[in-house]
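Subject: Prephenate dehydrogenase structure
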Amino acid sequence: MEKDTNILIVGLGLIGGSYARGLTKEGYHVNAIDCDQETVDYAIENKMIQKGTVQVDRKLIGEADLVIFALYPHIFREWIGKNQWYFKSGALITDVTGVKGRLVYDIQDKLRDDCEYIAAHPMAGCEKLGIWHSDETIFYGANYIVVPTDKNTEEAVAACRQIGQILHFARISELDPYEHDEMIGFVSQLTHCIAMSLMTCDHTENLEDYTADSFRDLTRIARIDETMWSELFLLNKDALLHQMKLFTMELSKLERMLMEGNKEGIKDMMRRSTARRKLFDKERPTDTGRQDIQTSDDEGPQSGVLQSEPDKDQKKGGSNI
């Protein structure tokens, strides 16, 4: 991607802001649109972007060669429907949305013929919300999934992969939209469901006085943006329900072995778990600027969608354009 590529980011939350930091650091011309003026001011003051606005600026949109959307799925769909006529001819559109499936096909069907949408999902993030927590280094060593369809050109797929390389993702893989959602139902959404359930199944007061790192590690992602994640769960409910059923079956096996006093069965399950975790922990590259290793079944530190923290950032996520 040439350095004179004009990039527009729509939505400056945690991920959109981290994209802005990373692309600007690599020498690209980055502008942005966000619904929150304080977010835009912060991005300009911290030299994350060159121009920013809270309006749907036709000129800013029309100048962009590449438009990156970091919005909730339903807002992304609505935004394209209302404002796609402002894109320049030949503009490339991509996103960071955590669920693809029908969304990708819907947007490709409604998009102008002289523009192209190639979906992507950065598997990176943290449990906090908003541009104030944005950090381009969350992408270093993480996974990046390109989600093409048969409507995408080889050039668009290559350009999307290059975005992952520029931002220093370690692994860049390709899945079709429904393969992506099946995988995300397991590695991201199910894990959030488990973390939520752990935090809500016991009402012991002063829990922090009794827990060790295991509980803290397992529940880090339980501090969650209920608006966004409820939408993602429902958009991907079939895949998520399937994964929940498989998990419940496995937990039921363990429950049955405990009830029966089946020590050897429990030990065998532990051995299989340990072996699989060792395989998962295999050494991996940390910078796709040096290596580009393809895989299709690994996960990043966390889903590449915004999560929340209370007070200031709950109000000022800057992703609801």
